[in-house]
Amino acid sequence: MSKLKLAIIGSGWIAEKMAITIAGMPELAGGALLDLGVYPINFALMAFGTDIKEIVSSCVKIDTGMDAQESITLVYNDGRMAVLHSTMLAKTDRQGIISGTKGHLIVENCNNPQQIKVVDQDYQLIAQYDAPRQITGYEYQVYACIEALNNGWIESPYMPHAETLWVMTLMDNLRKEWGVKYPWDKW
């Protein structure tokens, strides 16, 4: 394993040096959680809902006091768990994997699914679904907005205001637990 590890790391395919820019600035609500962590959180909530019993988390901060990466485990009342990770220190695969007793789903790019693979308990691919090609990944938001405007809705049924506020409260509570504070925070 160590020879393989050295060969891969030494190949130059990934870099160790990382740049922190706007994402690390408190005055711009910087940090990995609000920039990137919201996607795995929403993915978990879409898959398992909000009946959460406990949240266990930790983060690594940079010198500006902002979170650079975090691990969040959502423990549900029915015994399910969602183990989430986000980082601005590395390029990740952005996969979302949902495991069950008869196999698992692999969602490529959990913040804007491009493809879903269904894998059985013998690790055989049994189905694959590709999403329609997109330009930016925001098309679905534009379509939802147009639908809401055309129907006179003040909110989209796909992401109601209450759900947005629930997620923001969850993330604010995590930031508070970690001591990641923005200039306007009153805690």
Q: How would you sum up this structure, described in words?
A:
With 187 residues, this protein is an alpha+beta fold. The protein has a domain at 94-131. It contains four helices and seven strands, in the order H-H-E-E-E-E-E-E-E-H-H. It has helices at residues 2-10, 32-48, 139-151, 161-178, and strands at residues 52-61, 67-76, 81-87, 96-100, 103-108, 115-120, 125-130. The protein has a four-stranded antiparallel sheet, covered by helices on one side. Strands 1-2-3 form a three-stranded antiparallel sheet, with helices on one face. The longest helix is centred in the C-terminal third of the chain and has 18 residues, at 161-178.
Topology:
Layout: H1 2-10, H2 32-48, E1 52-61, E2 67-76, E3 81-87, E4 96-100, E5 103-108, E6 115-120, E7 125-130, H3 139-151, H4 161-178
Antiparallel strand pairs: 1-2, 2-3, 4-5, 5-6, 6-7
